[in-house]
Write a structure and sequence with these properties.
coiled coil, 3 helices, DUF3138 domain-containing protein, 610 residues, globular, two-stranded antiparallel sheet
Length: 610
């Protein structure tokens, strides 16, 4: 096994004599990982202290009982290099530490600059086994915090993360979907796509991340984080010859942390504060399931949108966060919408809406609630007419056996309406939102974890991977938020340091929001007077089916295995199986359409920076 190395501001420290055979016992491996974690902790402290105090080439440090000289070699011999602040200084050796051990979040990086470094960190004091997290950083966030800097620009450290991904995807029904499964689009029997499967290999999940960090004072840290993959598809992208899929922003945000005040700010595109966290409420500690699918699995609560967030911690145990996040609304297709996007069962932008005015059906009343994008927005997509940002207020508690969260979500929907006979255009606004919670329990520390999340309320469909609609309309054209619940539970096991297995179950359910017109027909979402027998009539041209989804349920099982790991990086392979069931509201003819399908992923990843 290649001997691990520690990079300290231009100094390479070899752990001489530490050679581990392939048959080393598990307790020996745990001790080695503990040493690696301690090395990373000391490295971060030294770098932050040097940046803050402007330490010169001749300063000394003591690591593991050995006296080290900045920019040189262990005392007793060897030439020393130079390190000038304000210049780009390349690290003399790019050997990587192995995956595992605690990661350094924004606040931990700031705390590392203080004399009592890491004692205030939210990172557990005990080292973790490889992959011992319900959100393995090697899988979901690329573990960039735990890596040594590649180089420095003045007082700013630069860390790289990411992986090369190759995923083989098989679905029992043809969705013509890339590595992000459109869970709500599984076709009913009337579609020919319901009678054939699809195989879709993809490298689009290949990811690159960059973390920039600097400390103006011993208590403060400024960070910038950028994460991108190739999940974009321009108008010229296709699979005929060159597969020219385009890079896109996954995350791009800046943060400020002050450990003395326990105050943290985030601004940019990041995971929503509604997303669960493994500990605290700081970035890159999200409780994301270790699944391959880029659309997660039904039942997980998340968005990834522009926002500004304020976090206050109280002794690194209690947390309070407020986030203002970019809104969007998906309106439901029904008899109340004549302009329908059949792909996701939502209204496309506006149309004639049968309303009751003075107890008379007005079939020509017009609604407008979204517009095509312009000015760097996608002209082929519809954007809702928004009133204010989505607001999330969350509290969290960290204890030794578990992490708990509870939060509230507030939203506003807007539409413009005009009667069939003309007259003034009316602006109609509705309030929506819900309450939610998350929990992570260390059932058997280091070996088994339980995680669960739930969000219930009205108009919350966009926060679930199934993308059930947020709202329909009342008789007068006012947006009518749809009652919904989103939830999941999962078990994550770590039988060996190199193996992670997981089991998840999730559900997304939309309730009814309807009214009856003077013609006797129902309008809105969840109507029960539609003729739905045709949903089960097989037609090669695709028959008509106006079914409205009320429930998506899934069961997912999978695992990851470290095939290779060392100074050359890491190679991982993963296998995942998901069974999905989709249920529609019962029609007036007694038909209750249902459908389902199977999804299998076989994935290979090379993580060169870990």
């Amino acid at each position: 096994m290649r001997r691990p190395r520690l990079l300290l501001g231009g100094l390479v420290v070899m752990l001489g004599g530490m050679v581990v055979s392939e048959g080393a016992r598990a307790d020996d491996m745990a001790e080695i990982r503990a040493l690696h974690a301690e090395m990373r902790r000391l490295e971060a402290k030294v770098e932050q202290l040097e940046a803050h105090h402007g330490m010169t080439h001749g300063s000394q440090h003591v690591v593991a009982g050995r006296t080290l000289r900045s920019g040189g070699h262990p005392s007793g011999g060897g030439a020393s290099g130079t390190s000038t602040m304000g210049q780009i200084t390349a690290m003399p050796d790019l050997s990587r530490l192995t995956i595992g051990g605690p990661t350094l979040s924004d606040d931990a990086q700031a705390a590392a600059a203080a004399e009592n470094t890491m004692t205030e960190s939210i990172v557990p004091t005990q080292p973790r086994l490889d992959l011992d997290s319900s959100s393995p950083l090697a899988i979901t966030q690329t573990g960039v915090d735990s890596l040594p800097p590649i180089f420095r620009i003045g007082g700013v450290s630069v860390r790289l993360g990411g992986f090369i991904d190759f995923s083989n995807i098989y679905r029992s029904k043809n969705l013509t979907s890339g590595p992000a499964t459109s869970w709500g689009s599984f076709p009913y029997a009337n579609s020919p796509n319901a009678h054939t499967g699809e195989y879709r290999p993809s490298a689009q999940l290949t990811r690159l991340s960059v973390l920039l960090q600097g400390s103006p004072t011993k208590d403060e840290t400024l960070s910038g984080y950028i994460e991108t993959d190739f999940g974009g598809a321009a108008g010229t992208a296709n699979s005929y010859q060159t597969n020219s899929y385009t890079p896109r922003i996954r995350q791009a945000y800046m943060t400020y942390s002050n450990t003395k005040w326990g105050f943290h700010v985030l601004a940019g595109q990041a995971w929503s504060l509604t997303t669960g966290y493994t500990q605290g409420l700081l970035s890159r500690h999200e409780q994301l399931p270790p699944v391959v699918d880029n659309n997660q699995i039904p039942g997980i609560v998340f968005t990834r949108v522009p926002q500004i967030r304020f976090i206050k911690d109280f002794g690194r145990k209690w947390w309070l966060g407020l986030s203002l996040e970019a809104p969007q609304v998906a309106y439901a297709a029904s008899g109340s919408c004549s302009d329908v996007d059949s792909t996701n069962d939502t209204c496309a932008g506006g149309g004639d809406h049968p309303m009751l005015i003075n107890n008379t059906l007005q079939s020509g009343t017009h609604l407008l609630y979204s517009n095509a994008g312009a000015g760097m927005l996608n002209p082929n997509a519809k954007y809702s007419m928004d009133v204010a940002p989505d607001i999330v207020l969350k509290g969290a508690l960290d204890t030794k056996p578990a992490h708990y969260e509870i939060y509230g979500l507030a939203r506003w929907f807007k539409a413009m309406s005009q009667s069939a006979n003309g007259g003034p255009i009316r602006e109609r606004v509705s309030f929506a939102g819900g309450v939610g919670g998350d929990v992570t329990v260390h059932v058997i520390p280091r070996f088994l974890q339980f995680t669960g999340n739930v969000l219930a309320g009205e108009g919350i469909g966009r926060y679930g991977p199934g993308m059930l609609p947020d709202a329909t309309f009342k008789a007068n054209g006012t947006p009518a938020p749809i009652p919904e619940i989103i939830g999941s539970m999962g078990l994550i096991g770590h039988p060996t340091p190199d193996l992670l297995v997981y089991l998840y179950g999730g559900v997304e359910h939309a309730g009814r929001r309807t009214y009856t017109g003077t013609d006797g027909n129902q309008y809105g979402y969840g109507v029960n007077d539609l003729a739905l027998s045709s949903c089960n009539v097989e037609m090669i041209t695709g028959g008509s089916c106006d079914a409205q989804t009320h429930t998506l349920a899934d069961l997912t099982v999978g695992g990851w295995w470290h095939v290779l790991q060392g100074g050359y990086g890491a190679v991982m392979t993963g296998v995942q199986y998901t069974y999905l069931r989709k249920f529609a509201y019962k029609g007036g003819d007694g038909a209750s359409p249902t459908t389902g399908g199977n999804t299998i992923y076989v994935t290979f990843r090379y993580l060169p920076f870990q």
